[in-house]
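ok trying this again, last paste got cut off
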Amino acid sequence: QVQLVESGGGLVQPGGSLRLSCAASGFTLDDYAIGWFRQAPGKEREGVSCISTSHGSTYYVDSVKGRFTISRDNAKNTVYLQMNSLKPEDMAIYYCAASLGSWCSNDMDYWGKGTLVTVSS
């Protein structure tokens, strides 16, 4: 059974850090481009970061550049999103998704169910 499971969300104070994990089962993550998306209440889903299948090319939306880092551990079949210097506007449900293509888009092949990130003092 193909499955993506996110973990690592939670409550953090502004300026704090979290590391989200996206673990795959039923398929090999390194064959897929992996993206992190987020959706805040009342807002549209936003692409946050992407890592390609080959060469490990990465993308970050402008609002997280310099604060978030995406990485993959193929041995663990897991992709991570390290989030530092978190801001209240980062608060959202974060989803990981996989694309058999070489890059991310809104039309990904598999989606996780999401993990909630709350940034509040």
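PB: full thing came through this time. The mean pLDDT is 94.
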